Fold this sequence. Notes:
five-stranded mixed beta sheet, 41% helix, 16 helices, Nucleotidyltransferase, domain 5, alpha/beta, 3 domains, 7% strand
Amino acid sequence: MADKYSERMLGEVVHKLWDLKQAGISAEDIGPQIGWSATAVRRHVHFYGGMRPRWGRHLKGRSLSISERETILDLKRTHGIRQIAQVLGRSPSTVSRELKRNATSEGKYRATTAHARAFENARRPKAAKLATNEALRKRVQIDLDKRFSPEQIAGRLRKDFPDEPEMWVSHETIYQSLYLLSRGGLKRELVVKRRTGRTLRQPKTKADERRGKIKDMILIADRPPEAADRAVPGHWEGDLIVGKDMKSAIGTIVERRSGALMLVHLAPGTNRVDAVHDGLIKKIGALPDQLRGSLTWDQGVEMHRHKEVTIAADIDIYFCDPHSPWQRPTNENTNGLLRQYFPKGTDLSIYSQEDLDYVAWEMNERPRKRLDFATPNEMMTELLLR
C-alpha cells in the first residue's frame, strides 16, 4: 500500500466534513474546522458526487482507536508485543497484525498514518449490485432514461419482480451508482436525465426543506394581521446581503411603516450564526418598546439561534415560506438599493459597523415617494413623538 495517507484522512475528520456539509455549512467554513483548505473540501465532495461515503463511519469496538495506536507507538520502542497487548487489553495477534499491516514500506509505524490506513481499509470489498447484475443495470438505465426518479424505479422493480429479489435495488444504491465514482455501474450521462439535472448530489436541506435546519420556526402565515399593515409601526423585515464568494455578509433590517434601515456588521472569521445573533440583539434591543413588534426573516441558517434573539431582544420572529422573497418586499427593495453602496462581488468584510451606520443614516435621509417625500428618519421621529 502506498504511503499516501495522513491524519487529514482520519475517519473522524472525513465524516465530520460530511456532518458539516449536510448541515448546510460552506466549504470555506468547513475547512478551518477540520484543518483542510476550502479547495480540498470541495474536491473531496465532488469526488464523491456530493454523497457521504458509506465506509469507515464507525470504527469502534473491534477496531483500534487512535489513542490505542498512539499507545502502541509509545510502547513499541521498549515493550514487546505481548506486553503492549496486555496494556491495551487486546490480544497479541491484534497488535502484531497492526504493526505489520499499517507500517510504512520502510517499516516505520506512525499512529495517525496507521489510523488513516485503517479508515481506508474499512471500505467494503463487496461489488455494487448494479455493477454485477447486468439485467438489473439495464432495466435501471432504461427507467432513468425515461426520467423516472430513483425512488420510482426502486418501487416499480419490487412491483414488477415480486418474487425475484435479485431484481430489487434501493433508491439509495441507484444514487450511489450515479454520483459516487467508486461505486460505478451506471452511465454518468444518465445523471443529467434526472429532473434536477445536477451532476453533484445536494443535501436535502439545501432545497425547499431549508426549514429543517431551523427548529421551532413560526411561519409568516401565523404572523398577526397588524404586522402586514403598514399603518402599524414596529414591524421589521430582515435578511443578509452577501459579498464576494459568499465569504462576507451584512445584516439588513428595515421597518415596514417608515422604511427605516439598520445595518448589522458581521465580523469576518466568526461563525455567521453567532454574528447574526449578537448583531440583532444589539441593534433591535436598543429600540424603544413600541418599535419592537415583530421581525420577519428568510429561512437562512444564520437564524439558527432565533429563539435566543426573541428572548434577549424582546421581539417576535417570523419566517417567510421557502423561496418567497416577495414576503419581505420592503427589505428586498432596500437590499437592491444597497447595492449602490455594496456592489455584487464586493468584499463586505472591509466595512466596519461605523461605515454601515453611516450608509444606513444616508439611506434614511432619502425622501420616499410613498411617504409623500418625507424621509424615514422624519417618519421615525414622528412615530416616537406620538
